[in-house]
Amino acid sequence: MEIWINPACSKCRSALSLLDAEGAEYTVRRYLEDVPGEDEIRAVLERLGLEPWDITRTQEAVATELGIKEWARDAGTRDRWIAALASHPGLIQRPIITADDGTAVVGRTEEAVRDALSR
């Protein structure tokens, strides 16, 4: 299991605390420092069963600068969204937990983290 975190994020810290309390074995990836490439983002999206716009933090200042809220959300713009996430990792929703069964969850709630633990 791997968890993508921003240490400054309270949701990430909560997820780590829960994983620790449950005795889970996991690897921490500080994705703002160890930035995922476009292929990694595609792979995580597949594991999540989501589209890039589903994991984009559209309220971030860089999202406003890029005009992301105005971008189409369709197959034709998917690569543009993925490129933006790779170029601006702060736009990626967090934490993302990749489960041992090949799936992943966005672990923003205790329920989601427990879901990842059960997989």
From TrEMBL:
InterPro entries in the record: Arsenate_reductase, Arsenate_reductase-like, Thioredoxin-like_sf
GO molecular function, one term: arsenate reductase (glutaredoxin) activity
Entries under SUPFAM superfamilies matching the protein: Thioredoxin-like
Keyword Iron: no
Keyword terms of this UniProt record: Oxidoreductase
UniProt record similarity statement: Belongs to the ArsC family.
PANTHER family the UniProt entry points to: ARSENATE REDUCTASE
Protein name: Arsenate reductase
